[in-house]
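Field log, afternoon session.

UNIT: design team B
ACTIVITY: writing a sequence onto a fixed backbone
BACKBONE:
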């Protein structure tokens, strides 16, 4: 049950059911999801390790609230890690893996077309897990997964933006095409081009939700 609760909480954080800085109360989580205290604490600990929750002294756990500058730093790290993985991937990639990536990319596009954003989230994770599994450096793969999951709430901000999402879908196919060829730089470039837009979107989101308005009042969300 712990793993299932962890997944549900992760998705609810990603999709704003629990906004940044929201305090999560054990008893309320237990009641809402029908789980034990042990499962709740274990899920909290797992999400703290993933930097989606943060422990606040005398307050319990809260949903992490990154500043735009912190997000830029995380994206800088992702750029280093993911281009390093691309450099360490032997090309062309096994056709079996290519077929798997194509199938996931098609399912991802179909999920977005029908507005199933939680499935879009899940399939995006699966796509990049399969992509970076082709890198020969296992510790590097683990780091990429950790940093990818940390910034998923930022990526989800633009799931309802058709221009952005069509670009993301196109970029998935560009990554696949590059992995089918032997030009390493083309693959590295496709990875690099897939990263920047969501960080900019988060800066705009943060300004709307958390920065002070012209009358001096904070626009931060209220914990529920």
């Amino acid at each position: 049950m712990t793993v299932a609760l962890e997944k549900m909480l992760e998705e609810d954080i990603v999709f704003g059911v629990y906004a940044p800085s929201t305090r999560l109360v054990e008893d309320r989580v237990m009641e809402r999801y029908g789980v034990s205290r042990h499962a709740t604490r274990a899920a909290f600990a797992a999400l703290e390790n993933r930097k989606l929750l943060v422990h606040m002294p005398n307050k319990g756990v809260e949903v992490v609230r990154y500043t735009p500058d912190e997000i830029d730093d995380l994206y800088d790290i992702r750029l280093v890690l993911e281009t390093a993985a691309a450099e360490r991937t032997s090309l062309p990639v096994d056709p079996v893996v290519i077929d798997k990536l194509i199938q996931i990319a098609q399912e991802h596009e179909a999920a977005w077309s029908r507005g199933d954003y939680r499935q879009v989230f899940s399939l995006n994770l699966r796509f990049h897990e399969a992509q970076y599994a082709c890198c020969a450096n296992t510790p590097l793969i683990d780091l990429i997964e950790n940093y990818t999951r940390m910034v998923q709430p930022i990526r989800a901000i633009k799931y309802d933006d058709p221009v952005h999402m069509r670009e993301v879908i196109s970029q998935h196919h560009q990554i696949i095409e590059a992995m089918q060829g032997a030009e390493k730089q083309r693959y590295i470039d496709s990875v690099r081009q897939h990263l920047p837009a969501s960080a900019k979107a988060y800066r705009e989101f943060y300004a709307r939700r958390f920065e002070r308005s012209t009358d001096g009042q904070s626009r931060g969300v209220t914990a529920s």
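LOG NOTE: The domain at 68-208 is CATH 1.20.120.530 (Four Helix Bundle (Hemerythrin (Met), subunit A)).
NEXT ACTIVITY: expression trials, pending approval
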